[in-house]
Structures are given as structure tokens and as C-alpha cells.
Amino acid sequence: MVSSVTALTIESWTLYPFGILLIAARIISRRILLGSFSKLQIDDWLMLFVAITFTGVIVSVNQVSHNLSNYLPPGVAEEFTSEEHDNAVYGSKFVMILEEFMLANTWLCKACLLILYHQMTLGLKQNKLVKFVGGYCVFGYVLVQILYLGVWCRPIQQYWQVPVDNSQCASYYHHLITSAVFNITSDLLMLYIPLPILIKARLPLKRKIILCGVFSLGVLVILSAILNRYYNFTEPYGSLIYLDWYTGEAATSVFVANVPHLWPLLSRIFALGAFNSLRRTTGNSSGNNNSSGKGFYPKGSGNHKGSRARPYDQHGYILSESEERIASAGAGPGAETTWPLSDSKNGATLELGSMGSKPMGYAATAAGGDEKDNEHRNGIMKTVQIQQYSNEV
């Protein structure tokens, strides 16, 4: 029968390469989208730090499982030999290190997702919620660290003292409760950001379900966090089950934070073609019709029928994130214009269509108003654009 230590070693080092490969896939996918590694955004660089913290979690989990710690039944530590005492001190230090790596891994993954949500909701009222959740996460992380390092166990050397004078320095109960509260509540708030947008988006049902599924993966992180704390509080001395859930929660956080960015790479590898595309057809008084299937490009962008120009802004989020743009009167060459999803007055619509092999996104909500008027007066047109990608040749 496989021992619990061996089982944990197999599980942790099996999940580890999947997490690292997923981070690498995300970076390559972003390179495909943006065109250069030098154009990677702050959330991409933060994900490289996640690779470090995730490695730290896996290494620390295995060190803790192979060594003793100061979390022992009363009277046991007093009977230790000198070697066993040193081993328990060593293991206790890694318990503290594990907790720090776990906190960093969890909150960095939150930061990466919040940056994505910020780009998705620019110009929308949901952007205020993103900022609130971001502030809540920063506050929670700082408070948890202050309590962990300066309040629950004093002096801090008690965390690796054997035996301990303060039981909190061995059980971490107060710390586990406070960190779980901020972790789970912030995850619940983060789930509320993309789902209402996707549910209200004017998308085909199949694609809406797929997108909602991707952005609902945070439920798995919440479940892992709950089970992590459950086994921390209920298992007896010497049980290693809580370490299994530390590994599972860390790996799940990494998976969830990277999955939304993988479509460009998957499309390139498996020749999946366009997940979605954007086409504009018009039936206005001038008789202009742009329904060639080559994609819609804003007026003044210099793109015409058959153009292959890539619709990115300086962050690589054009037509893949929500935004608020100002349409200026007499827009000249190079001016930016954001178009509404539909204009029933003039018969203009945005439809799903073939975009060849360029990364595109959906316009998911409409701005009202007359298209002709919008071309001749200043106004603000808001669109919600859900990040999707297609294979790029």
C-alpha cells in the first residue's frame, strides 16, 4: 500500500508540470496575439512570478510531508531526541514558508484575473466593481500578512520553536480563518464581474455557455479553498491530507488564471479556425454595403475590403476587451471609432461571420443613436467586447 507521503509526492509532482506548462502556454499564446514578447502586459509578467510561487508551494509541501513539525500532541515534543528536535524545527520553518508561498500564489492569480476583468469592463459600470474588488484584495492580503507575521504568533520565532508556548504558532487556526475569509469572499466577488456581462451579451447560446463555463472555473478554486480549511480543522495530528488540498488549491488557481488566454495557441496548434468573428452589414440611404466577410474596420482606420491589419491597441486588447471611446467630428485618418452592435434605425447590424484567421471579439452591448449623427458630432459610444481569438496565419 502506498504511504500518504509517497502519494502526496506523486500527486504534487504530477500537478506541477501541468501548471508550469499552462503558464508557458499562456505566455506563448499572448505572444501570438500581441506579436512580440516585448509587448507582454503586466498580468503576463505577474504570471511568471506565479511560476516561482507555485514551485515554492510544491517544494514546501514535500518538505513538510517528509519532516516533522511543531504541530504535535501535548507532551510528544519533550520526548524528542536531538535529531528529531532539529528535524521538527526544520519542518516547522517550511510550514511557515509554505504558507507564504501559498498566500503569494493565491493573490497573484487574483491580480492577473482582475487585470483581465479591468480590460473587459473599461467604460462600463462594472469597472467600478473591478476596482472595488482589487482594493478589497489588496486590503485583505496586507491585513492577513500583518496578522500572520505580527499578531497571531509573537515573537515570530515561535513559528519554528519546538515545543511552542502558544498553540497558534503550531496550529495556525486564527490565521487560517482570516485568510480563508478574505480568499473565499474575494473569489465570490470576482465571479460576479464577468458572468452578468456574458449572460446579457448578445451571443449565440453555445458560445455564451462556453464563455460562462470558462469564467465560472473560479468555483473550483472556491471549493478547493473550502476543502483545504475543512481538512486543516478536522484532521488529527500527523495527517497529511491538508497538504493534498494545499497542492490542489494552488494548482487550480494557476489553471483558472491561465485558461482564458489560451485560444490563440490552441487555434494555431489544432487549426481550429475562428472561434468567432465580427462582420458589419449596412443598409443606409447611401447604399453602402460592407458585408464581404473580411471583417469590419472602423472608419478612418485605413483598412478596407480584404485588409489583413490586426485590430490591436497598444495593450493588445482591441476587439477583445470592453472599452469606451469618443467619436470625434470629422475624424481623420488614423482616428479611432467604436461602433454599436446594432442600429435598427438605419438597418446597420453587427453579425457573426468569417474573419479568416485574425483574433477578433464580440461586441456584446449596443450604443444607441443614429450612425450618421455619430459621424458628425461628438459622442460616447460604449461597447462590451468579449475576448476571443482565432488562428492567426
Quick recap:
The protein has 393 residues and is mainly alpha-helical.
Task: Report on the architecture of this protein.
This protein has 393 residues and is mainly alpha-helical. 53% of the residues lie in helices and 6% in strands. The chain contains twelve helices and seven strands. It has helices at residues 4-34, 42-66, 82-120, 126-150, 168-171, 173-191, 194-200, 205-215, 218-234, 241-258, 263-270, 371-376; strands at 279-281, 323-327, 342-343, 348-351, 361-363, 379-383, 385-387. The strands form three sheets. Strands 1-4-3 form a three-stranded antiparallel β-sheet, with no helix packed on it. A two-stranded antiparallel ribbon has the order 2-6. Strand 3 and strand 4 (348-351) form a beta hairpin. Helix 2 packs antiparallel against helix 3.
